[in-house]
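Box 3.1 A note on notation
Throughout this textbook, protein chains are presented in two layers. The first layer is the amino acid sequence; the second is a token string describing backbone geometry. Keep the layers aligned when reading.
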Amino acid sequence: MIIHPLPIDAAALIEAEPFEDHRGLFARFFCARELAQLFGERQIVNVNFSRTHQAGAVRGMHFQFPPHQEMKLVRCLRGAVFDVLIDLRPESPTFLKWHGEVLSAANLKMLCLPEGFAHGFQALEPDSEVLYLTTAFYAADAEGGLRYDDPALGIEWPLEVTEVSRKDASHPLLKQGQHSLEMDGADRGPWTLGPLVKREHILWREGPGPASPTPKSTM
């Protein structure tokens, strides 16, 4: 397995090294030893699967609040997706920056998101299937989300957004306009959102979810 560091610190793109012959191919999708530099002593506790019927549909952007943060390994098993991560670590130099990669059944790539990131994707082909390996159990009371079309994030989805769930469309928008914010003794700069600090410190600007998704710019 080949590990490629991404521009956002601690996130990585992982390539399988398939063996191919006349029968087809064999590839290792996970190896704790080969991924030790990323994975450490963590353990996979959930393996989740999604199928997205419509090309252009978006799922996300999702995360879990402390103490339920999770590392997530994401792979596409069928079709292709544009997989996006957002850095939610207030102390990070790339706080609220996003990065996207195409994952597909053909390229055998996997995205590694450590704790402290939001995640989502857009289906690039009909009936795309995604596998998620996570290091924390799902906790309904710790769910968090950011809007896929939040102008403060500026995610550039490759396709026109054709579908999004009512729940994902109703995530709050980030609030801007303050020049600084003091949270737990740390200056967080111009943003008023720190998703991974205590909830009572988080300031939201409520925004209604669109009746139908607004198309975004093509990359």
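The chain has one domain: 2-201. The longest strand covers residues 57-64.
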